[in-house]
Write a structure and sequence with these properties.
With 164 residues, this protein is an all-alpha fold. It is 78% helix and 0% strand. The chain has one domain. Helix 3 runs parallel beside helix 6 and helix 7 packs antiparallel against helix 8. The protein starts with a helix and ends with a helix.
């Protein structure tokens, strides 16, 4: 039997995770830039609140959602991606490269995969992946224990340096 307090905490965590998932799925990369920029601006603030309150339970959902969003962005033309560069980089800065302690390997794998999708967006849009992001990725890689995560991060850092 699960104690009532633990059950309530789990429901709350699941609710925050579902909120993050929903907000990221609702972002429409094919929307006009002004609309997409507003969607991202409003969603990011709500997602940040959910991450703080939902904790580690929200991390995997966040990274899955970001990867999915950036993969949808890849369907756009290079011109459309460039037009929305500031919105995409704001999303990456505030959520993907957010400073958080990720202890579960599955979540670190998902983060690395999401960063890889973002790097592909930068490459397709021919805009620079900020040197601070490359430095962050190299820091994650240096501290990483998992060979799988290290491999993905090394590949992504290489793409970002070459593309930038």
């Amino acid at each position: 039997m699960i104690p009532a307090a633990d059950y309530g905490d789990r429901i709350e965590e699941d609710t925050f995770a579902a909120s993050v998932e929903c907000l990221l799925k609702c972002l429409d990369p094919s929307a006009p830039y002004a609309v997409l920029g507003e969607q991202i601006s409003q969603s990011v603030s709500l997602i940040e609140t959910a991450l703080v309150n939902g904790g580690k339970a929200t991390y995997q959902v966040l990274f899955d959602g970001l990867k999915s969003f950036f993969n949808r962005v890849l369907a756009l033309s290079a011109d459309s991606i460039r037009e929305c560069e500031s919105a995409f980089t704001a999303l990456a800065s505030r959520l993907l490269f957010r400073d958080m302690e990720i202890t579960v390997e599955t979540a670190r794998v998902k983060r690395a995969q999401a960063v890889d999708s973002f790097a592909a967006v930068c490459e397709r849009g021919t805009f620079e992946c900020g040197p601070e992001w490359v430095s962050t990725i190299e820091g994650w890689n240096a501290a990483e224990r998992s060979a799988q995560v290290k491999r993905i991060l090394s590949e992504v850092a290489g793409k970002m340096v070459k593309g930038g």
